[in-house]
Amino acid sequence: MKRAMLEVVATGVVTEPATSRTRPATACAPPQIVAATTVAALQWLGREDHAFVTWDRYHQVYRPSPLGCAALVSGFPPERCMAIHADLQRARECIVLTSDLHLTFLCVSPTDDLIPDWRRLLQLVNSLQASSTSSNVTPNPSHPLQRSSGKPEEMTDSERVGRRFWAALILRDVLAEVDLQEISRKFGAAQGAIQGLQERSSRFASMLAAFCERLQWQDLEMLVSKFQARVLQGVRPELLALTEIPFVRNYTARKLYSAGLRSPDSIAALEDETLLIEILARGSTGR
């Protein structure tokens, strides 16, 4: 109901309190119940601590706030938007760009259900603990330690961060063009699960970029949009231009790049097409 109310406010169907009470009368449920639910949803959306809609006192109408517009355009449920918004706010203040890890972490959905190998995660966390590259997103080692010792699972914030960080480590290797079989052995995850993580993260990153755009956070939008293209293709940044060519996947792009063809223009400038055929006919590279 919260998202439905946000949509009708944004489209102008509901503009005032009286409209919100009378509009649901055509619903299948009893009008009194629907009206009460609708008003409760509208009140929740207008709470000061996370206002998705605001009351324009001058024009006496409801209007969607920038956060409300961001929720609509991105497709995120309003209930999840506050946590996503807080994540992005922290990132804008102290994002670490000396490696891909922080951006990778942001592009993994907080609700991703990939179950970590907690002992392995503890080892990786300990190895990264002293690194400034990962200090802003690395989970506290105490939680992986407790989980690796057999403590029962509780879906706490620490549990979610641990799972998300585990997924980010896997995705980081995908973007580094590590062989899929090697990633599977390293993390004990099925190759299909790794590919599924990549697809989900690509969709999430696309939604995240739209979310940032409506909040007018152009700095973060540009970073996430560019990174989303890498997540989609599973490549290092130098191959992005080549993967924009239709039907050119990561392994083909790596062949072309290694042969010195590093942009679509350089390929178009080739006078001898047989050279391109020879390059593509060489042994497979990458996944």
Automatic annotation (TrEMBL):
<dbReference type="InterPro" id="IPR002298">
    <property type="entry name" value="DNA_polymerase_A"/>
</dbReference>
<feature type="domain" description="POLQ-like helical">
    <location>
        <begin position="78"/>
        <end position="231"/>
    </location>
</feature>
<protein>
    <recommendedName>
        <fullName>POLQ-like helical domain-containing protein</fullName>
    </recommendedName>
</protein>
<dbReference type="GO" id="GO:0006302">
    <property type="term" value="P:double-strand break repair"/>
</dbReference>
<dbReference type="InterPro" id="IPR048960">
    <property type="entry name" value="POLQ-like_helical"/>
</dbReference>
<feature type="region of interest" description="Disordered">
    <location>
        <begin position="132"/>
        <end position="157"/>
    </location>
</feature>
<dbReference type="Pfam" id="PF21099">
    <property type="entry name" value="POLQ_helical"/>
</dbReference>
<dbReference type="GO" id="GO:0006261">
    <property type="term" value="P:DNA-templated DNA replication"/>
</dbReference>
<dbReference type="GO" id="GO:0003887">
    <property type="term" value="F:DNA-directed DNA polymerase activity"/>
</dbReference>
